[in-house]
């Protein structure tokens, strides 16, 4: 049985260049992956189903809803005793900006092959991006802090906790009118295993420097 990956936050003063670069690279990739999936037209990831549902009901922009949802999720950290870090704040701002910029320059896909490429590429990139920025150990984003906090408190694997969260969010977004498709189901089932697979390879540790 593999030992769990150490994900507790480390002060930003420790290997700052290496870890801040990893943090922002991960966040940019995460926002890009979100935009790729939305442009595929084959279904949104569970959080974006929720974002779209809220945006449609409030007339707020997609990016604004993404940021506001992150703030609400931060409130759920309190009983889990999670502490925000540099990565937490950066997550709220960077992802919301990047997803809007990439959506602006990336057109909707209309051919199935291109749609499938955007969807599958977006899902894999999202799993990698999650592991990269969480693995920088500068404080997880609001949604991933909920994932790691629940995993730590319950002893359940990251894979199980992440999948459970995605399914709950998906149901809520669908009830609000968000778009659900084959990509939504694939993402919900794949993201937990993908994040858990990549974490051991990208998580910063003193041995790696």
TrEMBL record:
The keyword Transmembrane helix applies. It comes from Saccharomonospora cyanea NA-134. This is Putative membrane protein. Keywords: Membrane, Transmembrane, Transmembrane helix. It comes from the Bacteria. Pfam families: DUF6198. The chain crosses the membrane at residues 20-38, 58-78, 85-106, 112-136.
């Amino acid at each position: 049985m593999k030992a769990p990956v150490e994900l507790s936050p480390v002060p930003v003063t420790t290997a700052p260049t290496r870890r801040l670069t990893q943090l922002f690279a991960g966040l940019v990739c995460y926002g890009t992956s979100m935009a790729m999936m939305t442009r595929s037209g084959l279904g949104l990831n569970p959080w974006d189903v929720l974002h779209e549902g809220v945006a449609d009901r409030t007339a707020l922009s997609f990016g604004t809803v993404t940021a506001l949802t992150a703030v609400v999720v931060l409130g759920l950290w309190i009983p889990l005793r999670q502490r925000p870090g540099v990565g937490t704040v950066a997550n709220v701002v960077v992802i919301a900006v990047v997803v809007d910029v990439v959506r602006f320059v990336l057109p909707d896909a209309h051919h199935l092959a291109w749609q499938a490429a955007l969807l599958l590429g977006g899902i894999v990139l999202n799993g990698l991006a999650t592991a990269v920025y969480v693995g920088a150990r500068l404080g997880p984003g609001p949604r991933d802090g909920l994932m790691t906090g629940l995993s730590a408190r319950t002893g359940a694997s990251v894979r199980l906790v992440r999948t459970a969260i995605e399914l709950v969010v998906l149901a809520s977004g669908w009830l609000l009118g968000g778009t659900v498709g084959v990509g939504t189901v694939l993402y919900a089932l794949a993201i937990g295993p993908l994040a858990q697979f990549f974490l051991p390879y990208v998580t910063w540790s003193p041995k790696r420097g």
